[in-house]
Amino acid sequence: MTGFRFSVNVLGIESPEAFARSCRAVEEAGYDALFAADHLGVPAPFPTLVAAAHATERLRVGTLVLNAAFWNPALLAREIATTDALTGGRLEVGLGAGHMRWEFESAGIAWEPFGARADHLEETIAELRRLFAHPGYEPQAAMRDAFGMPILRPVQRHGFGGEGPPLIVGGTGDRILAIAAAHADIVGVAGAYQVRGRPPGTFRIGSATEADDRVRFARACAGPRADHIEWHTLLQLVLETDDREAAAASVAHRLGLPVGDLLDTPFLLIGTVEEMAAQILNARDRYGFTHFTVHAPFRDVFARVRETERPPAPVD
After folding, report:
1. Is the pLDDT of residue 313 over 80?
2. Cβ contacts of residue 234 below 8 Å, gap of 6+?
3. Is it true that domain 5-306 has CATH number 2.60.120.400?
4. Using one digit for the tens of pLDDT, what is the confidence trace for 247-257?
5. How far apart are CA 82 and CA 72, in angstroms?
6. For 81-92, what is the mean pLDDT?
């Protein structure tokens, strides 16, 4: 398949050697990027990305996504600039507002209303752009001169208004998608929705109708930028099967959608390799998605999907 980008989301590390082998396997399978999340209980993103870049030759690396509330912008700017330098300019920076209340509580960080978290996300983007545009701290000037210290700044000039690495922002709600449309180089239309009336962090898969609405809204917010944005989504499940309906029925309760909706949603793949390839093409044609990320356990089966050259027409 041409005109797409495909990436893998890291979920864990067993050992340095095993992780390096895994990263090389991702690259050898033809993937374009490897991403790390920013959740408690999973590997810290920036050292993970540096290790991934050092184990590979061309693979881009990124965060999907950083919880802005976990980071002081000045310290985050240092992490981004350092990681971009150590990966040879292969970094992509994903930022989000955070949505797992238990993580905030476990980390001793105040859980604020959604509006406050969205404000903090947008303020963080603005401050990172400012810091990248004006690197170097005046109190360090004498030391830099004395020791010949270079100013720390990102290698890339693609995102943050041309001052840093490409920026990814994604979500489902109006406010986050509006922020993404205004600032991001890569807009992620998320497929996980909080279940109403259930504890924070209880999710269901979004439907095709919801995807239509969210893409339409984000593109309208982006205006003339829309055609220059890369449109991204994270596939929550890749399930190879000869019986799509039976397979969908087996996971319908867990994913929170009726079988018919699961077979139509762009946020997961169910079917033969050829049928799943057709679903990818349909997601591009219907929603404009050209960048798809899969979780690491689905790496091998999705590699076969992405290698399919002439998939059949989408299955009704």
Report:
1. no
2. 9, 64, 170, 188, 190, 191, 267, 292, 293, 294, 295
3. no
4. 999 999 999 99
5. 15
6. 98
